[in-house]
Design a protein that fits this description.
Length: 336
Amino acid sequence: MSIKFGVVGAGGIGKTHIERLIERVAGAEVTAIADINVAGTKEFLKEKNYKVNVYETDTELIADPNVDAVVVASWGPAHAETILQAIKANKYVFSEKPLATTAEDCQKILDAEMKQGKRLVQVGFMRRFDEGYIQLKEAIDSNLIGELLMVNAQHFNPTVPDSYTTDMAVTDTLIHEIDVLRWLVNDEYDNVQVSFPKQTSRKFGHLKDPQIVRFETKTGMILEVQVFVNTQYGYDIQCQVIGENGVLDLPEFSTVRLRQDFKVSTGISEGWNRFTKSYDVEFQAFVDSIQQRELPDFPSAWDGYVAAVTADACVKAQTSKKQEKVDIPEKPEFYK
Ligand code: NAD
Ligand code: ISE
């Protein structure tokens, strides 16, 4: 039996999720879409020749008996309201990051899911499904480099719109490292500090870019992430893990090597399509876990909550310029 999806938010990434669910994910179909931009959504469906019901509101979509699972791909501040309604209706939820934009709203989502008594929510932290990060994790877990000491990571984007603000470097961009690094090194954050090196002239007046975020973990590891969203040259994700017995690097984004004009070159991705395969894999895992009714091994609402609490500490550290504590309460039994 295939899972019938309703997608809320058919913008940049929502459209790609609709395509992957219709064309690539086994056991999935898309039966409904809700977007405040109804005309734009209908235009997209016409271009693609997809026959799907269109609603203006998430409430109508969630009430549709032909929807088993809801994909939330609207902008961040709208996520919590849609997710809470879907959980109340006992529907599965795949939420793009962030789960919600405040720790308080994430807590409401945890409470609602626990009240429902069933794990329903997966968060779109797709890097956990990326082949390169999986190879890193397997090497770490097999003790290949012994005790871990440090991580150096880079999250570089070619450019961002002028609506992008300094705190978004954390809540919109770094949020991926906040999730993937604690998963990778099997440790939790203790405190965080943010510093601002010499700034690029290619940013807007209101944006501080680049930024350096330095986490200390509970066991004393230092994880440093450089966030630079106006590199101009490409979408470049790097991660190096340093252990007592060696160093591991995230494999490079792979493209063909071109020999031409007396040069050898390889490409750099232009945007988050660098993770196209990981999005496919995360959705396949979501569908498989629903069909098998197994306790899902994926980024849960708890992981979304931890990311939000950590992001709050990072944003505080951006202005205080001091070390800020990351205070995560004990994980509820429900999420263990
Ligand atoms: P976007 O602005 O291109 O699209 C958002 C869409 O949601 C628009 O079509 C808008 O009309 C619609 N919308 C907004 N509020 C709505 C509401 N209340 N109800 C219904 N529709 C609503 O944004 P985007 O770049 O596609 O990002 C969407 C989400 O995906 C964000 O949470 C973003 O952080 C996330 N995202 C994740 C990745 C990733 O790598 N995992 C990449 C890009 C975006
Ligand atoms: C975007 O929303 C994403 O999630 C991308 O993965 C990230 O690289 C980018 O900085 C965000 O704006």
